[in-house]
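Our preliminary data section would be incomplete without showing what the modeling component actually yields. Below, a chain of 366 amino acids is followed by its predicted structure, encoded as tokens that our downstream tools consume directly.
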Amino acid sequence: MHAQRVLSPVLGVSWTVLGEDGAPIGPIEGFLAYLSGIERSPNTVKAYAHDLSDYWSFLDFRGVDWREVRLEDLGEFVAWLRLPPSARDGRVALLPTAQAHVGAATLNRKLSALAAFYAHQARQGVDVGELLTTWAPGRRGGWKPFLHHVSKDQPHARRVVAVRTARKLPRILTVTEMQTILDACTRLRDRFLWALLAETGMRVGEALGLRHEDIDPAASQVSVVPRLNANGARAKSGRSRVVPVRPGVVRLYADYLNVEYGDLDSDYVFVNLFAEPRDQALSYAAVYDLVLRLRRHTGVDFDPHWMRHTAATRWLRDGVPVEVVAKLLGHSNVAVTMATYGHLTVEDARRALVAAGWLTGGEVSP
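Predicted structure:
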């Protein structure tokens, strides 16, 4: 079994999973086509394709039909995923002290993919039993969803298979590291890209989809607009937003246009100027090639999303209200922002205590 990228005249870029005979696996094909049809992120569809490919390989190894799987089988699937691929056929023994091949966060993502897959099959009328869900009566208190009053006394479904994960703090860059990356750029286009990401907290896909009309130099602001892009870049949240920027970023944009962009006839801000295909919108692959070159040159380990985390952390530490940060990042609600950034490091706590005068004096002498 393996995931395969496909190009559909109707859905555009999508994914499928091919069986041992090279033919698409019907139930997975329908589910992935549905995800593409409702315009789920291509990266999400790709991840689900790989997750379901692993699942089908497990089912094939066990000789189990996907409609007859029970909860115990899912527990064995998790254990199977933790094994390195070379040991999954049972012919290679693994020491108990060996590190798991797949982490808890990845396992939970794969289980979520299975839950979505089986929920979709159930909606299509396939009898899959109560494989991934358990039914519990409605509960009082806590958050109430929209139209809760209609179904508050009805049972609700929830996924019952999950793996405990250790909470990870977002990776951020120091001011020195960020400056090192910018100074290592030999092209104004590249320097402007990283400066823009660090200044606005935009996702790299949002930056790659920028048009010149989205940048307002007079107002010092950048608009993030969801649209179809030739390079496959997309605004994940699906909602437009406007992010103010400092004058230095606007000047860097002007320098980039005057020195490198010239009279190129393109709507895209970031284009291929120094490699093929020239004059085309810059791709994700081109950006990650640049990341690898800058890592080697600077010794700074980073990826574009760290700049988003850095911007958000900087805003919050500087006292920007969390609801404003959520809007700048394009989060659907404040809860998403708090779930990612609602933490205090020791340094944050110490800074707050010093500002309050707590560490510089006291009524009681120790």
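The longest strand covers residues 2-8. The chain is about 45% helix and 10% strand. Preliminary results of this kind motivate Aim 1 of the renewal.
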